[in-house]
Amino acid sequence: MSKYIEIKLNHEFLFSFLEKNAFKLMVLFPLSLLYCLKMIREYERAVIFRLGKCFRKVKGPGLFFILPCLDSYEKVDTRTVAFNVSRQEILTKDSVTVTVDAVVFFRIFDPYLAVNKIYNVQYGTKMLSASILRNILGARTLQEIVQKKEFLIRNIHGLLNVGTKEWGTVVERVEIKDVKLPVEIQKAMAVEAEATSEARALVITALGEKKASYMLKNAADSFIKNPISIQLRYLQTLSQIATENNSTIIFPIPIEFLN
């Protein structure tokens, strides 16, 4: 009986409160929606925390509701982000110091992991990229870095994806923008390239002379086998001389005299 009276009194108090404050509630209700209703863009997602506990299911894009004083949320941008890896001075396997500039493109595919598994996902990816870049290039010689750049980029890309997967991110692309060598190494490589070009030119010249001598030998053998061809060649030579110098007087000698 006492419980019934208590419930009745509570209902009466509630009804009286609503009657007295109905106007205030009608005015404040639209304002309260501003705190409950949130909106995020197409490329954003919202990770909801209720009393400190994170919900696995993220919200967005569009409108979503939160409970005032109980819920908080963190927005996560899922677009591709590009950042420059800080310039790295790397000692190669053959003891040559090179300076490498690189750029990394990555995006967040799981906002829940990106918020809960790492404090700053972009900073963590940047530091991991610099570390893997030093480890991969430091285990190679200078010649391998210059000649096998695409192969090394694929290795760096694969290791980055393995390391960042648990953070809810994926590395889409890695590019090595520049590899700067010491001045002494650049001069030595220029001298080596020039010497290689000269050696290649000498080889091509020697092959051309060899081919020409072979063709002359074949022509001489052909003349020996066909004496008439010698006479035709003789007449052709006379025709060329007469064409080049019209004032020259030529007295042809019968080819039989040469025999």
TrEMBL record:
Residues 35-193 form the Band domain. Belongs to the band 7/mec-2 family. This is Erythrocyte band 7 integral membrane-like. PANTHER family: AT06885P-RELATED, BAND 7 PROTEIN-RELATED. It comes from Brachionus plicatilis. Pfam families: Band_7. GO terms for cellular component: cytoplasmic side of plasma membrane.
